[in-house]
Amino acid sequence: MNVSISNKMEKQISGLKVALIENASRPFPLVDKLTQSQCNFTILRNPKTYDEIIDFINIQNSDLVVANCSVSSKYDSFKNTDITNLGISYLIKTSYTRRIIRPMVFITVTAHNDITLGDLHAAKTDELISLDMSALSLSLRFSALVKVLNIQKRHLNKKHSAHSRRTKLMKGIREVRKDLQQAAVIQKGILPTKKRFDDLRIGWMFHPSSMLGGDTFDYAKIDDSRLFFYSLDVSGHGSAAALLSMYLHNYFANEIRRFRITLAEQYQTNLAGRIKYAMDVINQQMLEKMHFVDNYFTAFVGIIDTDSEELLFVQAGHPRPFLVNRKGNVTTTISNSDVDAGNTEHQQSVLETDWTGLPAAMMPNHQYKVFTVPFLRGSRLVVYSDGIYELNYKSKGKLFDNKDFQNFLERTKTLSAIEMTKTLEQELKIGTNVLPDDVSFFVIDFNDYTPE
Do 229 and 136 share a domain, yes or no? Predict the structure, then answer.
């Protein structure tokens, strides 16, 4: 039984690297005992300085340091020239930072040493070795030490493995973020830049909830007197919603080209039919080609005709736009039935429309309806996504709501389209915080909307 234990211990401690630090003033047959313990050890005798000790330990890459020098209760004696066991222990435990796992420190003592537990704790000593300790007892101490070192190494390996995985993960996240940032630049780059078309003036803002958003919009002249525009909001957030919004942006960009090519032909007197056809087709395409995604989108698509002073549009579940008129001071709504009945004359200053419609990509073969309303000189059209109602109106300590929006439009009706847009961004402090939803907004003024 004893032989079996001895063999097991020898195997356990055979790879232990021990540095013995001793001086001639303390004769002690420790070398023989270390030899009998079958561990790998090296000896530094009569060191002159603590730096010499540290250099020796670094070179040997020791797991354990056995200090057999002067026994003094002054653990900070390394500040002087007197080299002590406690000084070696304290220096290694507090200053030896070259390796992740510091060496363990054993110090030799005699029964007559005047060292207290407080001294050992202050010097951070791991273990005591009696001068008369047997080789077997020493081997047992070393065997226990090996178990502790193995636990430390396993823990360190786990930390290293976790750190490695975390490093790879962070690298992947940085690469994805870089790609998203580049995609966001592209997404913003396709937004319109021109803000003046003869008698029409335009202001807009676009702020995604993350680096990519599901909102998009565009506008372009299709002939001398007509401006085509749209505002879209794809459900959801992030890259999936952004990719779908880019797909829709490309679709409507092609529609603009089709308008221009065919306007002088069959659709010259049927612009409403062309808008309806565009919405009917994209609704069906999304259901057939994008059936594997759950996203739908809302849209407000229209044409402003400055010759006839009319607004033609399809409303597909988008937030109700506002019409702003320089006359009057009453806020009200105009509904689908009013448009159907031709009751579109209004003297109100800010008019919230009640036009409704089904979001696209929800119902197969849905037939969208085109509305036509007057859009006279001096009018302003305000189109936006629903993310604006999730913003905090900090000046009032609450969420920005419909009534706040109407009051804002009343207060700013004398400002230009661009100035009004900047004012809204400032009051809602957009761009300074992470947004809960994408926010897009544009305003179109007829005849620069400058009241006399």
Answer: no
Buried b (16+ CB within 10 A) or exposed e, 179-196: ebeebbeebeeeeeeebe
Write down the pTM of the prediction. 0.62
Distance (Å, rounded) from C-alpha 389 to C-alpha 320?
12
- CATH value at residue 95: 3.40.50.2300
- The answer to whether 248 and 296 are in contact (CB under 8 A) is no
**Does 220 map to a domain?**
yes
114 and 250 assigned to the same domain? no
d(CA 434, CA 80): 58
CATH number for position 341? 3.60.40.10
How many independent structural domains does the chain possess?
2
What is the C-alpha separation between 283 and 305, in angstroms, rounded?
Answer: 25
Buried b or exposed e, range 233-254, using 16+ CB within 10 angstroms: bbbbbebbbbbbbbbbbebbee
The H or E element spanning position 323 is strand 322-324
Tens of pLDDT, residue by residue over 172-227, are: 878 877 887 787 788 888 899 999 999 999 999 998 887 678 899 999 998 889 99
3-state SS assignment for residue 255: helix
Residue 437 located in a structural domain: yes
Query: What pLDDT score does 318 carry?
Result: 95
| Cβ-based neighbour number of residue 354 at 10 Å | 15
